[in-house]
Amino acid sequence: MDIVFLEEIKLDIVIGIYEWERKVPQTIRIDIEIGLPHSRGGESDNIVDTIDYGAVMARIRQTAAEQHFSLVEALAEHIATLIRTEFGAPWVKVSVAKLGMLRGVKRLGIMIERGERPSA
Where is the Dihydroneopterin aldolase/epimerase domain (predicted)? Predict the structure, then answer.
């Protein structure tokens, strides 16, 4: 299985369970690996034979602007579901992290995998 990846996506969004977290946007980092439903893009050199990562990014930005998430877990789950349902990915791995939230911790967050894991 071929995998498209998007690394170190940074978004400023309002996310959190505490009142102080919901007052100003926080920078989050998202890393995504997307299993392709087939591997024809390398042969055809045609966007219709792969997953358009530009369209994926547009949807992530749109949903992050329109919806409020309290937990990074919920945001990661939402992104994974969106990619699998709207873009037909059989497998996705999503990491969402808050940056500099705890003293001495560069980033904290969650990593999830959904769908059929690619075989080696």
Answer: 4-114
What 3-state class would DSSP assign to 109? strand
| Domain boundaries along the sequence of the chain | 3-115
Check whether domain 3-115 has CATH 2.30.38.10, yes or no: no
Counting runs of H as helices and runs of E as strands, what totals does the chain give? 3, 4
Q: From CA 26, how far away is CA 99, in angstroms rounded?
A: 8
Burial of 44 (0-12, 13-18, 19+ CB in 10 A): exposed
End-to-end CA distance of the chain: 8
Give the single-character DSSP code of 15: B
Instruction: State pLDDT tens for residues 1-25.
Output: 889 999 999 999 999 998 888 888 9
